[in-house]
Design a protein that fits this description.
eight-stranded mixed β-sheet; 8 strands; globular
Length: 324
């Protein structure tokens, strides 16, 4: 068995523009659809949407390309993060955005595609508030448990339900009842979860290649003077980016030391004028995000070349016929 190839894509809202551009370059270099190169694709939040786009035949029986996903952000980002006028009290008591715009875009984009049509095993993260447990949508479980066959639109909505930005998604399946929020609350960089799932899914493999694509390093800091007097309101504005960033950075450290794992992290180190906020959909910020990603691609050809050498070997296994 050749090495198992794993792709993992971070969360980050509109900063999904960055992995879309990086993956477009990777697909161009490979000359094949990305699902054909990976034994498992994982994603969280905006990364989950990208994973579902490139990993299911939602575009008239074909997967979306990374360029298609870039256009999704550029064209529909303002509709997803549509500003509404809220009073100070409403800002404290309600999500920042109505889910209507997000749900309309996802429904148009994924139509009635079912998860069972996944073109390669997919792992999409969410968190169940009712069970107080991580919840992973796993396409490879469907063959043995049809209850895992959700509509892709619902999965995309669940993984991107960022606390304070959008309300949770309520899903039921038979007797099971879930209240799902953004998987970024525990696994914003899903690389470690994807690595663990791949090892479980392919137990005979000894070598794994994990390609992890980020949404840009925020490079911001919070001083003691800023944080020392924060209460509920102060922390409510900052806690989401704090825990998402900390999770991503710890995963980087752990995977670099993982035996039998070759880990590639594709992360824009400096947003260069682009805003770190996940919901800034101004025209200038959309342009700056594209510029940051394009400059990263232009200045990191060696990293992309090394990844392509690994991926050109082909998948390490046929699609598994087992439910895990």
């Amino acid at each position: 068995m050749e090495s198992i190839k794993v792709l993992a894509i971070d969360g980050g809202g509109i900063r999904g523009i960055i992995p879309a551009i990086i993956l477009a370059e990777l697909q161009k270099r490979l000359g094949i659809d990305l699902y054909e190169a990976f034994d498992l694709i994982a994603g969280t939040s905006t990364g989950g949407i990208i994973a579902l786009g490139i990993g299911t035949p939602s575009k008239g029986g074909q997967p979306y390309s990374p360029d298609d996903l870039l256009n999704l952000y550029l064209q529909y980002g303002p509709a997803i993060f549509k500003t509404t006028i809220l009073t100070p009290a409403e800002q404290l008591l309600s999500p920042k955005y109505s889910p209507d715009g997000l749900e309309e875009v996802l429904a148009e984009f994924f139509q009635a595609t079912e998860f069972k049509t996944a073109l390669t095993p997919l792992l999409i993260s969410s968190y169940d508030l009712q069970g107080q447990l991580p919840f992973f949508f796993k396409s490879h479980r469907i063959a043995f448990d049809p209850n895992y066959n959700w509509n892709v639109t619902d999965i995309a909505r669940a993984t991107s339900a960022a606390p304070t930005y959008f309300p949770p998604l309520h899903l039921t399946k038979g007797a099971k009842d879930y209240t799902l929020v953004d998987g970024g609350v525990f696994v914003n960089n899903p690389s470690m979860a994807a690595n663990a799932e791949a090892r479980h899914l392919y137990p005979d493999a000894t070598e794994f290649v994990v390609v992890s694509v980020g949404t840009g390093d925020r490079n911001d800091s919070i001083t003691y003077a800023q944080a020392k007097d924060w209460g509920l309101v102060g922390w409510a504005k900052q806690i989401v980016p704090v825990f998402m960033d900390s999770v991503s950075e710890s995963v980087d450290y752990e995977l670099k030391l993982m035996p039998g794992c070759t880990y590639y992290r594709l992360q824009v180190p400096n947003l260069q004028g682009a805003e770190a906020e996940m919901d800034d959909v101004t025209a200038q910020n959309l342009a700056n995000l594209q510029s940051s990603a394009q400059q990263y691609v232009a200045t990191h050809p060696a990293d992309l070349d090394a990844i392509c050498v690994e991926l050109n070997e082909g998948r390490g296994s046929d699609m598994p016929g087992v439910g895990r």
